[in-house]
Please model this.
Amino acid sequence: MSIRGQTVIITGAGSGIGEATARLFAEHGAQVVIVARSASYLYDVAKDIEAHGGIAMPIQGDVSITEDVERICKATADRFGRIDILVNNAGVGDYHNSTVITSDELWDKVISINLTGTFKFCREALKYMEAQGKQGSIINVSSGAGARANSGAAYTAAKFAVEGLTRNIAINYGGTGIRCNSIRPGITATRFTDGEEWERNFDAEFNATCNKHMNLTIGHTEAIDQAQGILFFADPDNRYITGQVFCIDGGSFL
Model:
């Protein structure tokens, strides 16, 4: 992989897929800017990456807030001179809530982070990628729900839209040095669904319906499996791969 010396912004990097991606990219010599809404874990991740010889800059921020997105991109360019890779991984779940029980508040929260946050980071990072000679790679993290619709209403809608946005950007920059791709994780073992809030709001009845549309016997993937797919798309050697989606699920959606 030839990402050594490149600068990457990774959102939702305090844990799970984002953390695994940050660690993997740092191991391959990239300068990683790790972003999360909460400082919990974020600074520990950065400290550990640097303790192992990597370069990491943690920045706290909310992907759904335009000013935070602009501040993060500017801070990245100010320190490292450019933005080579953007990984839009930040996301929240919707407790597998079906349409009729999805509140306005839950819908707005899921769409604003999973979709609008991805859009805002793409929009801002693309300005830098254009200015540096139309060079860069964007990888958006979707979900199996982005193809099968077997999740909550808000989460499914957001992930379908993320894949549409990915292709739209790829079409816009086709033939240039800017690429945009997406990964589609299957069920991945992370902190994503931990806690009392998840259990309290979880729609078990609709989840049981959704589970009929996947093979649960295959088991969960791990965060590193998704990170490897992201690394593949980020690699500038794969310069003609754009507008594509990797489904990384072990076969559970076949």
Notes: Strands lie at 7-11, 31-36, 55-60, 85-88, 135-141, 177-185, 245-248.
